[in-house]
Amino acid sequence: MRFVAILVAAVTLAAPASATAPRFGLFDLHDLSKASRNEFGDVKPTQRIPPAPFAVECAAGCRLGSGWLGFTRLVGPTAADIRSASAGPGRIGWSVRLDLTARGRARWRAFAKVAAARARKAGVPDVLALVVGGRILAAPLADTLRLMRGRLDVPGFTPANARIAVKALAS
Description:
Elements: H1 2-19, E1 24-28, E2 54-58, E3 68-71, E4 82-89, E5 94-100, H2 102-122, E6 128-132, E7 135-138, E8 146-148, E9 151-157, H3 159-170
């Protein structure tokens, strides 16, 4: 009986950590949690899940480092805003093309406007993290994403990660 109580407590305490990994998410490195920044404000992956509203893992080939990153919020479209996804060679590596709902297009346009203003002010575009299944599969620059005729083209994937993203978004 004591074992069952310990097991139930462990599962209950572990649930919030697993609940923070989104099925799909677009994150901006400006929105890193404090736990995912070093003393200079740079990206600092951790070996443990960080305390943050959204915790994601850097996948194989992630250029942000090995480990976990915490973000304070999502930007742009969500999984509910994606009608379908496809992948193929693109302008920069492989691209994942997301057919968005009207709400998804509006969310992307709102974020793109903020990102463009920051890029003009700072002189460099925002770095984004595209997350599928709780793992960062691509980290494109905000000014490389294109929205045309309801389809958001997200570049910067490896062929393997592009296929993983499409397969996960189809399920």
